[in-house]
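Open question from group meeting: does this chain pack into something compact, or does most of it stay loose? Before anyone orders reagents, we agreed to write out a predicted structure and look at it together. Recording both the input and the output here so the notebook holds the full record.
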Amino acid sequence: MLQDNQIEGQELSESLRVLRAIRQIVTDDLLPSDGRLPTERRLAMDLGASRRSVRYALDQLEAEGLVWRKQGKGTFVGQPPDPTEELAAKIVSEVDPLTAMEARLCIEPALADLCARRATADDVALLRQLADRTHEAGEAEAAELWDGALHRAIARIAGNRVMLTAFTLIDEVRMGEEWRRKRHRARTPETRAAYDDQHSRIIDAINARDGAAAAEAMRDHLNVLFSNLKTSLEKERR
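C-alpha cells returned:
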C-alpha cells in the first residue's frame, strides 16, 4: 500500500506532466481556429491523467495569462475578450507601430511602479517563470507569446483597472499580423539576450518593492525596443 507522501509525489509528477503537455498544445497552436481547448474530460482521456491534474494545469496556464475560461463555453487560448477590442479594431489602421511604442512608454513604467508596490511573493514567482519561458522559447512566435504574457501579468498585478484598460487597448492594437511580422524582424539573438537581461532587472526591482527602480527599468527596456523597432522599420523602407 502506498504511503501518503508517495501518493502526493505521484500526483505532483502527473500534474507537471499534464501541464507540460497542455502548454505544448497552447504554444504550438495545435488548436482549431476558435482557439478552444478540448474539454477537461477529453484532455484527461487523451493524456491518460485525472481530471484533477488537468484542472491544476489549466489553473496554472490561466494564471500565466495563456488561457481563459468562460462558464458553459470552455477554455480558450489567450486573454478573455475586453471591451477595448472593438475600439482597437477601429483605430488599428490609423496607428503606426512607433506611435504604439510611445503609448507604451507612457503607460507601462507607471504599471511597473504600481506592480512593485502591490506584488506578492507568488506574483514575483510567476513573473520569473514567464521571463524564463520567454528566454527558453525557441521560435520567435513562442518568444512573443511569453513576452506578451509577462507584460500583461505586470499590468494585471498593478491592480489599476483604468490603466489596465489603456494597456489592453495598446496591446490589442499591436497584435495585428503585420505588426507581429515587423516586431519579429526586429528580434535577433543579440536583442533577445538584451531583453532577457532587462526583464530580469524589472522583476528584481519589483521583488525589492522598489517602484521607482521598476519604472526606470521598464522605461529603459521599452526605449531599447523603440530604438530597435525604429531601426528595423527604417531598413525595411530602404
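Observations to bring back to the group:
The beta strands are 67-70, 74-77.
Residues 6 and 171 are 45 Å apart (CA to CA).
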